[in-house]
Amino acid sequence: MIKTTINSNVINDDEDFICPPDPERIVEGLRDTGYNFNTAVADIIDNSIAAHATKVDIRIDMNPKDEITVYIADNGEGMDLNGLKNAMTYGSKVRPDLGSLGKFGLGLKTASTAFCRCLSVISRGAESAEAKKAQWDLDYVADKHAWKLKLPDVLEDELSMLNETAGEGTGTLVVWEKVDRLLKNYSNRGNRQNALKRKINDLQFHIAMVYQRFLDKTDSRGTNVKITVNGKDIEAWNPFVPSEQLTELVGNEEVPVDMPDGTSSNVIIRAYLLPNKDAFSTPQASKEARISNDMQGFYVYRENRLIHYGDWLNLYINEPHGSLLRVEFSFDHTLDDAFNVDIKKSRILPAEEILEYLKSSFLPAPRRAAEERYRHGTARNVAKKSEQRDAHAESNRNIDEKAKSVEAAKITVTKPDEVRIENQNGTFSHKITIISDPKPGQVRVITKPDLEYGQLWEPCIADGKHAVQINQSHPYYQKVYYPILSQNVMVTGMDALLWALAEAEHKTYNEEIKEQYEEMRIAVSRILKTLVADLPDPEEEDE
Q: For residues 535 and 498, what is the distance between their CA atoms, to the nearest angstrom?
């Protein structure tokens, strides 16, 4: 038997001891559980929805002394005094409905005190016409050095605010006072006000996204809830943009997940490919879709509430070629253990078997489709800017002036897609792209939206002249050419190099090596694609 000495008392290790935590250290420590303002407010909204509220009103005020107060009222079932005490207990009793959005019995307290030092809850239940109030004041807990929950009287303005949302029926009002962690210190009051406005704007979008299935009256998956922030009705934001005709469902599976206890439940996985920014029905629709690196990836829903978004669960890094792909991942509370849902309901960690299935079986095809759409969309934008700048005009003039002095092969067009080449090796018939009516001035360097096999360049004949086609879809063109299209010397030099490679093919062409030339172009183009992969993608310019 091992004996341990604590405070000079000898105890046995096979006995049970009650070791109550230090109240002040615990409540202060729980302020640092990692909530941000948006996830903290969402945790309170979860409780309202769990209480079957159909209306949630949020108000964020700053008084002349720059003190911020947050109010969150609902018309849910409300609580009597015993229910209120339970709700304010750290680790409250499990809800009867295991599928409710409230999960651990900690969110109300930890989410609130992450930003305030005084949390009050005013509630009116079905069996009591009188609202009751309970309050955690962290300074009071520290002063009394005890888990002392205050039960003060309901203030008139608090009752009025509760009634505005709940009428004379049941409901709950959560109040955050002594808000000390929402904004940093500002010497200028105007800056502080602007910072608070930005917080409120961010919160409005977060709610629109997280509770989309509850806010959208046409969506039957979540119970309908009306949510307002400072009087503004929040409208649902759907990350998959089903209203756009060009949005494609490129993956749709319902996968059973077996739990260790022998039970099984399904997870729904759907991959949506969004249009390129310039392909949306309107510029406003494109803006509202919020296509960016930070908004791609998985959108994970637990009980129809978004709990995680904007990455690939460590399977891939976020990069521009995936910006058009968003994947729905929906499950119910029975799979919480399989996905390791955290206390803030803002992170999951799926089992390795699930991650392997996603990476090897589900995601490859949608990711290829997303890369292809992004690449062609970028190519269109690059081509548009290239045309606007007439970026290769100087190259065409320069090469056209000097071409005759370096051309060592005579090429004659014999058919619409065939020429006769006369060079140092003899005379040969050759299949080649022939452009009979090129754009004015484009007779030596011709840009194309794409080339076969993804080649960067390819010899051609334009208006009877030796020319080269350059592939605007190739990453080398998009990442190396595009940023310097306004620099004539750089573009002229690069165009001259590719034209010279094409001309060298004409000079040395024979029947034995013609296929080797094509293989070389393909190989070089693939190597260049790999070499420039980590270079930044072209930035879109505002019109």
A: 21
pTM of the predicted model as reported, rounded to 2 decimal places: 0.73
Q: What is the pLDDT of residues 93-143, one digit of tens each?
A: 655 555 444 544 577 999 999 999 999 999 999 987 899 999 999 999 999
β-pair partners for 430: 419
State the Cα–Cα distance between residues 303 and 532, nearest whole angstrom.
43
Q: How far is CA 147 from CA 24, 28, 143, 386, in A?
A: 8, 13, 11, 69
Left if phi > 0, otherwise alpha if psi is -120 to 50, otherwise beta: which for 295? alpha
Report the Cα–Cα distance between both ends of the chain, in Å, rounded: 79
Residues 6+ positions from 86 with CB-CB distance below 8 Å: 79, 92, 93
Distance CA 55, CA 45 (A): 10
Contact partners, residue 478, CB within 8 Å, separation at least 6: 378, 379, 382, 472, 537, 538
CA distance 391 to 465: 20
Beta strands across the sheet bearing 418-423: 410-415, 418-423, 426-431
Q: What parts of the chain have a pLDDT lower than 50? A: 1-11, 99-101, 103-104, 541-543
Domain architecture of the chain: domains with CATH: 23-233 (3.30.565.10), 248-370 (no CATH), 390-531 (no CATH)
pLDDT given for residue 293 in this prediction: 87
Beta bridge partners of 429: 420
Strands of 303-409, DSSP E? 305-311, 325-331
Q: Per-residue pLDDT tens for 363-398?
A: 999 999 998 888 777 666 666 666 666 789 899 999
The residue written with tokens 């409300």 in the block is 78
Structure tokens at 246: 């060009």
CA distance 267 to 518: 47
Question: At a CB cut-off of 8 Å and minimum separation 6, what does 398 contact?
Answer: 492, 496
Total Cβ atoms within 10 A of residue 117: 22
Residue 126 makes CB contacts below 8 A (sequence gap 6+) with: 77, 78, 170
Provide the H-helix boundaries in 30-124.
37-50, 81-87, 107-113
What is the predicted pLDDT for the residue at 381? 67
* Beta-sheet pairing, 116-124 with 445-448: unpaired
Long-range contacts for 516-525 (Cβ within 8 Å, ≥24 apart)?
A: 518/453, 521/455, 521/456, 521/457, 521/458, 522/453, 522/454, 522/455, 524/456, 525/453, 525/454, 525/455, 525/456, 525/457, 525/471, 525/474, 525/476
Rg from Cα positions in the chain: 33
